[in-house]
Design brief:
Blueprint (H helix, E strand, L loop, with lengths): L2 H16 L3 H70 L1
Length: about 90
């Protein structure tokens, strides 16, 4: 919960406590706890989503690197075949 919200809740609790209305104090306290739980759940959800996106980006990067590596290997294999063919043609 943000500091400003916390201060407001405390002010409310103090004012109500001055009236000696314990039920209302308890209700406000419980509602503030519920609000904080909701904010915490939202924060956790955001963090999970951010980590999922981060992982996806990393995996995409790894896949791109892998594809580049495969492309380089194909090129080297083709180059090797060409060199062999040229050597064989040169021997003939």
């Amino acid at each position: 919960m943000k500091r400003k919200q916390e201060r407001e809740v405390v002010k409310e609790l103090v004012l109500i406590d001055d009236k000696n209305d314990d039920d209302e104090v308890i209700q406000i306290f419980l509602s503030s706890i519920k609000e904080q739980e909701i904010e915490n759940e939202e924060w956790v959800s955001e963090q999970v989503e951010n980590e999922r996106k981060k992982k996806e980006v990393e995996e995409e990067g790894q896949l791109e690197s892998h594809i580049e590596g495969v492309g380089q290997i194909k090129y080297l294999v083709e180059l090797t075949h060409r060199v062999r063919e040229e050597k064989q043609d040169g021997i003939k």
